[in-house]
Automatic annotation (TrEMBL), chains A, B:
This is Putative F420-dependent NADPH reductase. Keywords: Oxidoreductase. InterPro entries: NAD(P)-bd_dom_sf, NpdG, P5C_Rdtase_cat_N, STEAP_metalloreductase. The keyword Transcription does not apply. GO terms for cellular component: plasma membrane. One of its GO terms (biological process) is copper ion import. NCBIfam families: npdG (TIGR01915). SUPFAM superfamilies: NAD(P)-binding Rossmann-fold domains.
Amino acid sequence: MADNKAVIAVLGGTGHEGAGLAARWAKAGYRVVIGSRDAGRAADAAAEMAAKTGGDVRGLANADAAAAGEIVVLAVPYAGQKALANDVRAQLEGKILIDVTVPLVPPKVARVQLPEGGSAVEALQKDLGEGVRVVAAFQNVSAHQLADLDAEVNCDVLVAGDDIEARETVVQLARAIGITALHAGPLANSAAAEALTSVLIAINKRYKVADGAGIRITGIPDLA
Amino acid sequence: MADNKAVIAVLGGTGHEGAGLAARWAKAGYRVVIGSRDAGRAADAAAEMAAKTGGDVRGLANADAAAAGEIVVLAVPYAGQKALANDVRAQLEGKILIDVTVPLVPPKVARVQLPEGGSAVEALQKDLGEGVRVVAAFQNVSAHQLADLDAEVNCDVLVAGDDIEARETVVQLARAIGITALHAGPLANSAAAEALTSVLIAINKRYKVADGAGIRITGIPDLA
């Protein structure tokens, strides 16, 4: 099975959100490469993840991870998103880049503060150019829930992208780890998911949601 | 019961979304005033709504409706939002204004196109000044579902506002018509709900949802 599955590189794969996604893909039989600024740290995290999941996990410096991945996931804090993506631009050519970035602006992370012009990922796509197939997804999924590999994720994933085929690949990658994902329209529509994360943080505080609130889309005929 | 309930004026109350909300409040025992550009049209719609709901419904020109309402709802297309609110500014002083506006930009209504600076309602609050207690809500609720007064609305309402007491009033007004509403943070957080409407339109198209897709927030301890 795993032989037919794409190699997924997760840049920022030692962070909570990136590690949770990486571990779930590893467990599902994908070959996973964890990228980090520090190759040694990536290797350590990869060894631990391989033991935990029984999967095929390597750890490399971000640029090498981006080169090794057939599909690349960007899961770093907003402050580092642009610089890292530009650093590894050459390694992304022709590939699908799944951007998980939420434009949180500390300290007011429960307040929506989208960048001028709309969504953070649209600005990224402009920067990287059309040679990179940027898709936005997973911004609303609680890292806490991802970390427990057997726990159901109580959040639908809105998948936004201008490249419909790339978007469909990401929808399937989410479903492969048990997460319901939906085509949410063009990349510009990522603004909704990017903004929603701050709303969910506000809701977590107000309603004391320890595990992390999520969203479900209602009204859709069964997707199973 | 109805004597203790606020008078709710719905500007744009002859439109689909406004009429659906107005009818549900009328049915729940609130005194409702329908506002329209055309007082005659408002009166006709009010008579019809009173007959249908058994409620107390009047119809007036928008400015008179705004004057009569203790709480005012703005439910007009985005293109008319600012002008109407400014026209009736004097009648809004000290009141809660519930803005239902979604900044859709035809013809691409399935594409998120938030105004510069973020949410449409934040721009409105700036325009009207602090004397009006602006709260954003109901942007994601399908007018189709509102229209069937006995149908369950399959969508949680995100209520955003800087005035927390006003926000709580709106949360309760939603619950009074059987709709789950949640405190979603400051007015800026309305950007999420404003953007989500275009995503839901995109989902309605893609997944052929006739009744209108909605959202539910997951993970919150029972609100009932």
